[in-house]
Amino acid sequence: MSLDLIRIDDRLVHGQVVITWGAFINATKIILCNNEIAQSEAEKDLYMNAEEIAPHPLKICVWTREETLTAITENELENDKTILLLESPKDLLQLVDDGLNIKKANVGGMHYQHGKRQLTSYIYVDDEDVSCLKKLHQLGIHLEGKDVPSAKSFNISEAM
Q1: Which overall architecture, per CATH, does domain 5-159 show?
Q2: How far is 47 from 40, CA to CA, in rounded Å?
Q3: Is residue 1 over pLDDT 60?
């Protein structure tokens, strides 16, 4: 398995992920794991077009949870530097419940929405988010809050 960054970011594929994080880890692939988007050709195309803004060769895949787990378990990513991108803590917890074995995840962008409370300037959570983050922590997954590579990271578990 070659997942070089597992990131929760509700904006999904955008400049900060493609350019900043992509360059930082020298990513060759981004997997946007989202069942709904993967089933919409128009939305898939929209996200996959971000390959064109990357400052280096980059492949963007939009896959369902099942497709993502298959690629990981069958070592289809071992020759890539890969960012796994998820929209929410719930999405990550579902992947872990389905069999994804990880030790660490980056929480980089969970933006303000009505009913969410602020943990940092770029992380807002509601009760469902907190519940999922706590379950991930209980499973032994270190949750690092960090919006960009140069920022100081913090332990999400200590902030809840």
Answers
A1: 3-Layer(aba) Sandwich (3.40)
A2: 11
A3: no
